[in-house]
Specification:
With 163 residues, the protein is α+β, with helices and mostly antiparallel strands. It has one domain: 60s Ribosomal Protein L30, Chain: A, CATH 3.30.1330.200. It contains two helices and ten strands. The strands form two sheets. It has a five-stranded mixed beta sheet, with no helix packed on it. Strands 2-5-4-6-7 form a five-stranded mixed beta sheet, covered by helices on one side. Strand 4 and strand 5 form a beta hairpin.
Length: 163
């Protein structure tokens, strides 16, 4: 059995098959998967916020959707992935704190999802599937051997994102 490599909040990990990357407790945070199926190389990021604000200290950039995506992409290319073959999946972006937001205000989860879609589009990486929004947390397991992305919600639901 392949051991699982844990990806913590504001972290990302890259690996090659047959590794399994897992991250727990995605609420408004966003899990981002990048995968090159031909060479079975991929990564999983657990991001906290969409982008740094102007003037913000440039530490722990992996907590930001846009920066984590770019850093993870660089490492995957070094490992033999090709940008043209990479595909993405995103999970999370839930509205965990609805009472704190006005009806017209975009939630942090929604902002994270939007930042991922925009950054992926800028990088030319297709977004193959997503399991986002709602009001529940999720756990993601990414099997680099098969390319499967399994999602478990805190409500007990299970999903398998398309390959």
């Amino acid at each position: 059995m392949t051991s699982k490599v844990r990806v913590g909040i504001s972290e990302y990990r890259v690996a090659e098959g047959p590794a399994v990357l897992v991250t727990y407790g995605l609420g408004s945070c966003l899990g981002i998967v990048l995968y090159d199926a031909r060479v079975r190389v991929g990564g999983l990021a657990h991001t906290l916020l969409p982008r740094p604000r102007p003037g913000m200290e440039q530490t722990r950039m992996t907590k930001f959707v846009d920066a984590a995506l770019r850093l993870m992409l660089e490492e995957l290319l070094v490992m033999g992935a090709e940008r043209e073959r990479l595909q993405a999946r995103i999970v999370g972006g839930a509205n965990m704190f609805e009472p704190l937001h006005g009806a017209a205000k975009e939630t942090i989860g929604e902002r994270n999802v939007r930042a991922a879609r925009e950054t992926l589009r800028e990088l030319g990486i297709p977004l193959l599937a997503e399991d986002v929004g709602g009001r529940h947390g999720r756990t993601v397991e990414f099997d680099l051997g098969s390319g499967e992305v399994r999602v478990r919600s805190m409500r007990g639901e299970h999903a398998l994102l398309p390959l």
